[in-house]
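A note from the maintainers: we've had questions about how concatenated examples are separated. There is no special marker in the raw files; a new sequence line simply starts the next protein. For clarity in this README we add a label.
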Amino acid sequence: MSRLSRMAAAAGAVLVVSLPLAGPAGADIVVQVDKSSQRMSVIVDGDYRYTWAVSTGVHGTPSGTFRPQSLSRNHRSSLFNNALMPYSIFYDGNFAIHGTNHVSQLGGPASRGCVRLHPSNAAILFSLVQREGLGSTRISIQ
């Protein structure tokens, strides 16, 4: 896909962000988070590429289907003591998928609502979303 096509797709996605999302229609990247198994699958153009352990919220991570809202490579939380959140993909207000230095907790609920990944996996996902665009990505959390 050309850069112009990506820009056009991203611009078009902005127009439909507030509409209900039904199915993977046109999504190049699908990120599926299963809170019960604490696993994330990344599907690119219909092919399963990655499956990683995650940590979701101890007291809840929002469920639903989302589009990424913004990316922040070296984010620090203004809500939680300047906590480091590398490779953040914000999808619902202050909720994000991001890297963590608490890797021993991956595979079980541990966050305050975000979806935590090993930093190297977060870097892979961040680069993929950055390259393909926010409008080409769908995040499903169940």
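[label: protein 2]
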Amino acid sequence: MVAVKDHAEGLAAIENGAADAYASDRVTLIGLGRKSKDVSKLSLSTQLFSYEPYGLMLRRGDADFRLTANRTLSRLFRSEDIVRIYDKWFGDLGKPTVALVLMYAISAVPE
């Protein structure tokens, strides 16, 4: 095990051979991989160790905006637009995982 101070140092440890693996949440690892000097030398495990939901921060007490954001995201997750958005930004990484598809379905609560 090698201690690193931040994600950039973790990526550098992988690239220079000081470490064999680096663990973080999937979104962070995807972002790091895209910054790598040689992406072909990296691989992302398909093994999921946890579910890490993300959220949007908004002003406390702004119920109207929260409702608008929730409705918009719900509508997006029910539509084919989410597939196009995923393909645009992450399509080169392959298909969405089963966990991600299920998250879309759970988050697609009708209005």
